[in-house]
Amino acid sequence: MKAITLNTHSWMEEEPQEKLAQIVDFLATQEADVIALQEVNQLISAKEIIPDDYFCPQENQHPIREDNFAYLIVQALRKRGLNYYWSYSYAHVGYDIYDEGMAILSKEAQTPKEVVTSNEAYVKHLTRKILIAQTQSAIVVCGHYSWAGELGFDYEWQKTIAALENAPLPIILMGDFNNPAGSSEHAQILASPLNLQDTFLEAKERYGEFTVVKKIDGWRENNDLLRIDFIFVSKEFHVEQYQVIFDGHRGSVVSDHFGVLAVFE
């Protein structure tokens, strides 16, 4: 199985249409089984659309708009002969003008649901959620977490455990965790009852490591190379390969984050 995660920073990059095309070009060559996308934006003012049957709505589905970044990726991939089922979870307003959310693309049909993980008293306007999609093969999860803190990541991670601890299938948990490898937050994930493994640590082959290499939104004081974008999988999977992608070597740079690709079986 091949999985990809990317914080797209969509519509916020220079030449966003070109970035969209570069993402599609790379995804078309990889034909991943599951793809998790964060910071999937759509203008609040854009026209609402009704997607086709490859869109998998959840209960109380937030409207999909014509410039939804994941929708445009799915449509472009279809023109290449690749059909993906997909789901979308709205999290909060971004930069005053966008619906910001997450999306999961999968080759298999999926049944999605979202779970609010953030503490309302702490985050206020910045709601955090996880998007959970059950396919025939796995429970695929996309997350965008808060920074370290008892009411930030710690709280959200406990909510994640509660949502997934009775998962009926192996878990693939992907996303932007906003806490670097080697931190106590990273250790929490590896020690949790979900029995997850970090694909970077377990891969037989590795190409690259870090996913943030400059100052970005949320890391304005950063001077370090960070690995904060992860693919965690259940321990029953055997991890063959880990790659940093969209880094200028394996795919064009399309965001303020690099992406991650993992192969496991």
TrEMBL record:
Domain of life assignment = Bacteria
**What InterPro entries does this protein map onto?**
Endo/exonu/phosph_ase_sf (IPR036691), Endo/exonuclease/phosphatase (IPR005135), TDP2-like (IPR051547)
Q: Where is the Endonuclease/exonuclease/phosphatase domain?
A: 19-257
Keyword NAD recorded: no
Molecular function in Gene Ontology: hydrolase activity
- Keyword terms of this UniProt record: Hydrolase
- Transmembrane portions of the chain: none
Alphabetical list of SUPFAM superfamilies matching this protein: DNase I-like (SSF56219)
Please tell me whether the keyword Hydrolase is annotated for this protein: yes
Name the record gives this protein: Endonuclease/exonuclease/phosphatase domain-containing protein
Source organism:
Enterococcus cecorum
